[in-house]
Amino acid sequence: MRAVVVEQYGVLPVVQEVPRPEPADGSVVLKVEATGLCRSDWHGWMGHDSDIVLPHVPGHELAGTIAAVGSGVHGWQVGERVTTPFICACGACEQCREGNQQVCPNQLQPGFNYWGSFAEYVAVPYAEVNLVRLPDDLDFATAAGLGCRFATSFRAIHQVGKVVAGENVVVFGCGGVGLSAVMIAAALGARVIAVDTNPDALKLAREYGASDTLQASSTTVQEIRDLGGAHVTMDALGSNDIVQQALLSLRPRGRHLQVGLLPSGVQLDVGRLIGQELQWLGSHGMPAHAYPEMLTLVATGNLKPADLITRTITLEQTPAALAALTNGTPAGVTVIKP
Predict the structure, then answer these.
(1) Average pLDDT over residues 155-177
(2) Facing residues of 255 across strands?
(3) Neighbours of 78 (CB within 10 A)
(4) Same domain, 52 and 36
(5) Domain check: are 203 and 259 in the same one?
(6) CATH number, domain at 187?
(7) Does some domain include residue 10?
(8) Confidence of residue 275 (pLDDT cuts 50, 70, 90)
(9) CATH number for the domain including 96?
(10) How confident is the model at residue 115, as a pLDDT?
């Protein structure tokens, strides 16, 4: 099969012919119909993830058709249209038994723990726990984005942050995760304030439901305070500077959602967290069993993840697009069709 192969961190990968994966016990192999290009893939390419072993194939947001079914997998057939969370949980540990597959200690992530979906085929371990059937009218490109950015934002905003109508929600960073969060928070009735350095991203944020947009600057915190302050803030990019601005923007007893990765760490004013009774909430993906609520809202038109897709590229165009993330995250979502 053809796949994008990383042979050295930070060095432009190339498309190569590599062996197609075989289905292990409990797993399936998917023909990749669409896969998203995410900033997490860039972090992996840069060497920020210790689980990656070179040579490596990135890619963790995916949708496709089942091409082969391993032994011990029941209820799934070749040809079915599916997606999967980027966190493939074991289904047997304490966290999984409690329904918290997104923090499974035995989890495997395509594109990180093993070869991912920047390829024509990809394996999905623990298939019975992690596969999600797709509605017939949901296209593969839209479904691919659900596995990481959209589902991550849905759980962060709705299930972890518990955003309700009338709250001020400030989203820092309007890439795929941030724009998804804007759309979801607006659909819940929140007043959304979007912050980014990219005017094109802010334009999209307004289209997806932001009431206010702010060009990131040294006055961002004061501008947010002038708008009433934030009940909820979300760092959708991953930056120590953003974290500081987010925490300073919160009203007393506000909630901060950390979704963006922080490979260089972060400094926290614990005194402010205590004195203002602020909450720091981490959110990491969403388990397969939680997808039905999100898919229902997509089916009814309350959420429109298809609108987030701004670019579709080929496998051959992927290495350059991955490298371009070094200069910043483009507006909207980029989908790869192998």
Answers:
(1) 96
(2) 232, 279
(3) 12
(4) yes
(5) yes
(6) 3.40.50.720
(7) yes
(8) very high
(9) 3.90.180.10
(10) 98
What is the band of 126 on the pLDDT scale with cuts at 50, 70, 90? very high
SS (H, E, C) the chain: CEEEEECCCCCCCEEEECCCCCCCCCCEEEEEEEEEECHHHHHHHCCCCCCCCCCECCCCEEEEEEEEECCCCCCCCCCCEEECCCCECCCCCHHHHCCCHHHCCCCECECCCECCCCECEEEECCHHHHCEECCCCCCHHHHHHHHHHHHHHHHHHHHHCCCCCCCEEEEECCCHHHHHHHHHHHHCCCEEEEEECCHHHHHHHHHCCCCEEEECCCCHHHHHHHCCCEEEEEECCCCHHHHHHHHHHEEEEEEEEECCCCCCCCCCCHHHHHHCCCEEEECCCCCHHHHHHHHHHHHCCCCCHHHHEEEEEECCCHHHHHHHHHHCCCCCEEEEEC
Q: Dig out the tokens for 165 from the structure.
A: 């109508």
Q: Which residue has the tokens 């120590």?
A: 240
Condensed to tens digits (0 to 9), the pLDDT of residues 175-213 reads 889 999 999 999 999 999 999 999 999 999 999 999 999
Q: Which residues pair with 62 in a beta bridge?
A: 35
Longest dimension (CA), the chain: 60
